[in-house]
Amino acid sequence: MAYLRELNGRCEGPHTNKGQRTSIGANQFASPIFLASTLPARESRYFREFLNETDPDKRASILQVASPEMSRALSAQWALQQSRIAEAEGRDPGSIGEGGRLYSKALVDEYESSKTGLDYGNWLRSREIADFFARTGFTVPDENSAAFDEALDYTWSLRPA
């Protein structure tokens, strides 16, 4: 996929505006109001409530029952909150993510060993898309489909562990 640049909390790049408005296309560090709009209405209400939770144990409990899409959005927003607090206190918050996606040591290690041409955010999005297809049972687009993108690995989650 082509380069993405972040602009006013949204990712801009080869995907359409509609893609930016989905939980997979959206920058997870965007405004909470925008992120809530990318989730189904039922989840959006919970997202707004959960976002204000500060207790680490309650946050962990929330992430155990939340959908993968809401879990990603909440985790990124909570990390962003912590980063802003550190910055306000004069501490270096460090880097928390790239391409609208939160870093994790395991994912960064896997990304670095993947030898992909995608940046971290788009590589992670391709995994999220593959997981979505596997979880929902949707058919993977064939190579002649307008929805097919050769930069995406639609079968990632279907591989044996």
Fold and architecture overview:
It is globular, with a radius of gyration of 16 Å. The two termini are 26 Å apart. It has seven helices and four strands; from the N terminus they run E-E-H-H-H-H-H-E-E-H-H. It has one domain. Strand 3 (97-98) and strand 4 form a beta hairpin. The strands form two sheets. The chain has a two-stranded antiparallel sheet with strand order 1-2. With 161 residues, the protein is mainly alpha-helical. Helix 2 runs antiparallel to helix 3 (41-50). The longest helix is centred in the middle third of the chain and has 21 residues, at 68-88. Helix content is 49%, strand content 6%.
What are the salient characteristics of this protein?
single chain, about 160 residues, mainly alpha, two-stranded antiparallel ribbon, 4 strands, disordered N terminus, disordered C terminus
